[in-house]
Every structure is written in C-alpha cells, then in structure tokens.
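Hey, can you fold this one?
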Amino acid sequence: MVVIRLARGGAKKRPFFNIVATDSRNRRDGRFIERIGFYNPVASGAEEGFRIVADRLTYWQGVGAQVSPTVARLIAGKKAA
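Sure. Predicted structure:
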C-alpha cells in the first residue's frame, strides 16, 4: 500500500521533514516514490514552514494512497489558514 507520510531529515535538534509518497513497508527515512512537500517545525520569521504540491497530493489520493494522521493534521491546518 502507498502511504503519504513524513520522512525526517535535518540535524540533531533541528528537525526537517519531507512529505513523501512511499510504500508502507519501507523504512521511515528510506526509499520513497515521490517527494510532494516539506514541513519545517522550527521555521522562524520569513522562512516557509509548510509546503505541499496540491495536485500531486490529489493524484496520490486518487490512486488509493493513504495519508498518515500527522500529514492529515498538517493539511487540515493549511486549509483552515
């Protein structure tokens, strides 16, 4: 099954997450099919904290990909703002 979830990157104490479409059996930070956005929880000032390519998200959901609870929360927050 394809899942849309976060893959952690960045340095220690400076997390940075890529939003990726991947096979659910792959490791969290392992191989992925496509990077569709990012989330930077420590963004400050003029830095962009969250971005997702909406048409790619719609495509992956259309072909049956499941969205992780964390990514679903981020998407819902983006739509509310």
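The helical segments are 54-62, 69-80. Let me know if you want another pass with a different chain boundary.
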